[in-house]
Structure formats: structure tokens, C-alpha cells
Automatic annotation (TrEMBL):
Family statement: Belongs to the aldehyde dehydrogenase family.
Database matches in InterPro entries: Ald_DH/histidinol_DH, Ald_DH_C, Ald_DH_CS_CYS, Ald_DH_CS_GLU, Ald_DH_N, Aldehyde_DH_dom
Organism: Rhodococcoides yunnanense
Descriptive protein name: Aldehyde dehydrogenase family protein
Lineage, broadest ranks: Bacteria, Bacillati, Actinomycetota, Actinomycetes, Mycobacteriales
UniProt cross-references to PROSITE patterns, sorted A to Z: ALDEHYDE_DEHYDR_CYS, ALDEHYDE_DEHYDR_GLU
The keyword Zinc is assigned to this record: no
Length: 508
């Protein structure tokens, strides 16, 4: 597919800042080149915001929330808006998927699935917006009408990561619009293209001026203007642990509410009984492989830690390694490609550092560990699927989120040991368990300290179920009803329909 086949014109993305209903350039004329990680070419140039641009965007969102028509829009009208956005997403699915692939390097098939997932998120919150009701409270006094209502929290800053640019920011935008909030969006400066294209769809759908504002730029430049701003009521951030800590500290100055999803180091636990016959063995190998190497491992919930029962470990690891060798790498727009490059050369250098560290720490390199030697891939940010065996929790590659195609292998003998290893992490985003023993499976999923646990599956999710992590994977939840609650304040209204004197103090 060519750019013209998908209807994508890179020049259509400028001006690329959207503030108070107007597309505009940067206040200082600054721009950034956006690079296709499959070959290092520049695919687009976007405007890059200044701190003053960020202040104007927050002010526009504040005015739209406090004084604009958005507050008088009914839940039914908000629901209709979300459904219109969903319709436009499907209308432009091919173009958006193409843009996402150029931006991130993932395969076009993956990007198409992402657009369908984004659509499902908007459909879910369109439905939820109209069914959420006030809660009546019986206080056993007939003259009192007591109820709890949910009101929009206000102005929201939404900061999204580079691995799933449109999907991750949709988890924020859809519930915020359903709740009646206004917002400032900041995609990763590395992968902003699909969010720019999406914001044009939001404009087309008829969102009022100032409700949705869009900035591009680095967090180092824009961070303080967005996170230390008294006009901001809520910050939603998805990204790395260090940045999350910085945002939490900055927001504390104004006691701004913050929800953060900070990644994970996710165990995929395989018991011997789950691979007792050839079909279950092959299926488990396939799911472990997919769980870690999809999108070249650049997934916060990737199953990067294989925790395997000792009695089947040698055979199982060998089978996963053989499958890993056959993964077809290439540009995302090539239908033959099964996985694409890392998002940037910088990310590849980071992965190379983890591999060198793993070897130094004594882990056994089974497969991969280098960039491919195919000359056709030389200009891209590719890195081979990599497996380290005989790992333990003292190793940095087991402790740290590598965010790349690295699988570490740890071994166990007992259920108790498997559980100990599965919980022995500073993170707690997701985990998987494979066993044919239903009772054992239930014991494991209840005791694992992770926000999502898959039993005999891995990596799937639904917009209707909450997503988020324990421990240093963050706080708050996205998706599901709780995902909308993050964008609301609960207010208790006590209405005395027959007021009388309190009579507490005597009269003179």
C-alpha cells in the first residue's frame, strides 16, 4: 500500500497544534522531523509547542469547561458525539492504520487491530454515558432527598506513550468526553502522527471549541506548564516509571489528581500439566512467543518473564527459541512482515545495553542478542528476538522493564515457588498462568499481585474491564466503569424539602 492508496498526505498534518478550535503552528516556529523506524527516513514534519503554547492550551480548556457550551451538553449528546467519532474511525481505518505503522514501525495488520480497538473504546463509553445514574440514599427521613451525583472533574492533561499512540490516548479521551471534561492531549513527541489525524476527526465530529486541545513536544519542554498548572484538575499519564514519579511530585504542589500507568515486568507462568500433550505444548509455545515478541516486545503488558516448571523447561525453551528464529522481520507495510523494528535507534541502543548486561550477569543467551544481518534491514531500528535462559531475580534484565524483544527464563519446581517468582517484582501490571488444573489456576490468579491476570491465555483485553497495575506499575484504572470514574467527582447532595429550625441552641 502506498501513501496515496491510504489517502495519507504528510503535509496535511501541519499546522499540527490544535488550540481553542484552531489549527496553528508553534509560537516560536519550532518543528520536529518524524522518522519511519523501518528505514530511518523522514515521513513528516510537525509543529513543536512551546511552554507558552501549553499555557494557552490549558487556558482554552479551562475557559471551555467553565464558560463554554460544553457544560450544558446532555449525556445523550455526548454519547452521540462519541458514536460519531467511532464512525469516523472506521471510515478512515486504513489511513489511520497506515499512519500508525509509519510512525511506530508495527505491522499494518497490528495497526488495523488497534483502530478497531480504539473504536470499541468509544462505543463502550458512548453506551456507558447514558446509563450512569445518580445514587439515591435512604436516610429514613421522608423530608430528605439524599443523592450522590457524578460531575466532570474539569480540565484534564493526557500524556500518552509511543508504543500504542492512538490506542493509549483513546483510553483517556473517550471516558473524559463521556464524563463532560475538557482536555489537553500530548502524545509522545516520537509518534504524534495518528493523534494529529485523530484530532481532525474529533473536530469533524463536532466537538465544541476548546474542549479538545492538542500539543506536540517533549515532556522536558512542556512538562511544567502542564503538570504544575493550577488550572489543571487531573493528569493521566502512561509511560516510564521515572517520568511518572516526576509528574506525581510536580502535581503534588497543587494537590492535582493524577493517574499513572508505568509499565510492567510481566510473568508468564507455565506448569508442566499445561503442556502434557503435543497440541497443548504447541499452543503454549505459540502464546508465550506472541506474548513477548508482538510489536518487537514494545508492549507494557508483554510477557517478558517466562517462569517454567523445571521438568519441561529444556524442551519448552528450545521450542520457543526455534520459533523465535523463524519470525519474519521487516517494514510494517510489507504484508510478509510478522514484526517490525523498534521505534528508534535510541531504543535499539537501550536494548543492546540490556543484552550486554545480561551476558555479563551470567544469563545464557539462547537466541538473538543482535540486530539482523539482512542488508535490506540495515537502515531500520531492527533487533532480533532474544531469549536468555537460567535467569534469576538478581539480574537487571529480570528486574527492569526492557521494552524490547527480550525473554528471560526462570525455572521452578513447586506451585509455591512459581507464585513467589511471579510476585517477586517491583511491578504488577499483568501476568499469565498456564495450567490444566482448574483449582491450581484459580489459586494462582487470586494470589498473583497484578492488575490483569490471564489464565490459559495472554495479552487480550476488553474496553469493559478495568486496566491498571499494582505496586510500581501505577495507580488508578483505565477502561471499564472505573476508567470513567477517574474523570468524575462524586458530590453528595442533601435536600431538605421541609426545612425547620435546627433547635440545637436555645433562644433568649
Amino acid at each position: 500500500m502506498t501513501d496515496s492508496d491510504a489517502g495519507f498526505d504528510p503535509t496535511s498534518l501541519r499546522p499540527s497544534l490544535f488550540v481553542d478550535g484552531q489549527w496553528q503552528g508553534s509560537g516560536d516556529g519550532g518543528t520536529r522531523d518524524i522518522v519511519d523506524p523501518s528505514d530511518g527516513s523522514t515521513v513528516a514534519v510537525v509543529d513543536e509547542a512551546t511552554p507558552d503554547d501549553a499555557l494557552r492550551a490549558v487556558a482554552a480548556a479551562r475557559s471551555a469547561f467553565d464558560d463554554g457550551p460544553w457544560r450544558s451538553v446532555t449525556v445523550g449528546e455526548r454519547s452521540d458525539l462519541l458514536n460519531r467519532i467511532a464512525d469516523l474511525l472506521q471510515r478512515d481505518k486504513a489511513k489511520l492504520a497506515h499512519i500508525e505503522t509509519l510512525d511506530t514501525g508495527k505491522t499494518f495488520g497490528e495497526s488495523e487491530i488497534d483502530i478497531d480497538d480504539v473504536t470499541s473504546v468509544f462505543r463502550f463509553y458512548a453506551d456507558l454515558a447514558v446509563v450512569q445514574a445518580d445514587r439515591l440514599i435512604d436516610v429514613d427521613r421522608p423530608e430528605i432527598l439524599s443523592r450522590v451525583v457524578h460531575e466532570p472533574i474539569g480540565v484534564c492533561v493526557m500524556i500518552a506513550p509511543w508504543n500504542y499512540p492512538l490506542l493509549q490516548i483513546s483510553w483517556k479521551i473517550a471516558p473524559a468526553l463521556a464524563a463532560g471534561c475538557t482536555m489537553v492531549l500530548k502524545p509522545s513527541e516520537v509518534t504524534p502522527l495518528s493523534t494529529i489525524a485523530f484530532t481532525k476527526l474529533v473536530e469533524e465530529a463536532g466537538v465544541p471549541e476548546g474542549v479538545v486541545n492538542l500539543l506536540q513536544g517533549s515532556g522536558a519542554v512542556l512538562g511544567d506548564a502542564l503538570t504544575r498548572n493550577r488550572d489543571v484538575d487531573f493528569i493521566s499519564f502512561t509511560g516510564g516509571l521515572a517520568t511518572g514519579r516526576h509528574i506525581l511530585a510536580a502535581a503534588a504542589e497543587n494537590v492535582t489528581k493524577v493517574a499513572v500507568e508505568l509499565g510492567g515486568k510481566n510473568p508468564h507462568i507455565v506448569f508442566a500439566d499445561a503442556v502434557a500433550d503435543e497440541q497443548s505444548f504447541a499452543d503454549s509455545v505459540d502464546n508465550v512467543l506472541t506474548g513477548v515478541f508482538l510489536h518487537s516486545g514494545q508492549v507494557c503488558s508483554a510477557g517478558t518473564r517466562l517462569i517454567i516448571e523445571e521438568s519441561v523447561a529444556d524442551r519448552f525453551v528450545a521450542a520457543v527459541a526455534e520459533r523465535a528464529k523463524t519470525i519474519v522481520m521487516g517494514p510494517g507495510m510489507d504484508p510478509a512482515s510478522e514484526t517490525g523494528p523498534l521505534v528508534s535507534q535510541a531504543q535499539r541502543e537501550k536494548i543492546e545495553g540490556f543484552v550486554a548486561g545480561g551476558i555479563h550477569e551470567g544469563a545464557t543467551l539462547v537466541v538473538g542478542g543482535t540486530k539482523p544481518d539482512d542488508p535490506a534491514l540495515e537502515k531500520g531500528s531492527y533487533f532480533l528476538p532474544t531469549i536468555f535462559d537460567h535467569c534469576n531475580r538478581s539480574m537487571n534484565i529480570v528486574q527492569e522493564e526492557t521494552f524490547g524483544p527480550i525473554l528471560t527464563v526462570e525455572r521452578f519446581d513447586t506451585e509455591a515457588e512459581a507464585l513467589l517468582l511471579g510476585n517477586d517484582t517491583n511491578y504488577g501490571l499483568a501476568a499469565g498462568v498456564r495450567t490444566s488444573d482448574a483449582a491450581r489456576g484459580e489459586r494462582m490468579v487470586r494470589k498473583l499481585r497484578h492488575g490483569t491476570v490471564w489464565l490459559n491465555d495472554f495479552g487480550v483485553y476488553t474496553a469493559a474491564a478495568e486496566w491498571g497495575g499494582f505496586k510500581q506499575s501505577g495507580n488508578g484504572r483505565e477502561l471499564g466503569p472505573s476508567g470513567m470514574s477517574e474523570y468524575q467527582e462524586a458530590k453528595h447532595i442533601w435536600h431538605n424539602t421541609s426545612p425547620t429550625a435546627a433547635g440545637w441552641f436555645g433562644t433568649r
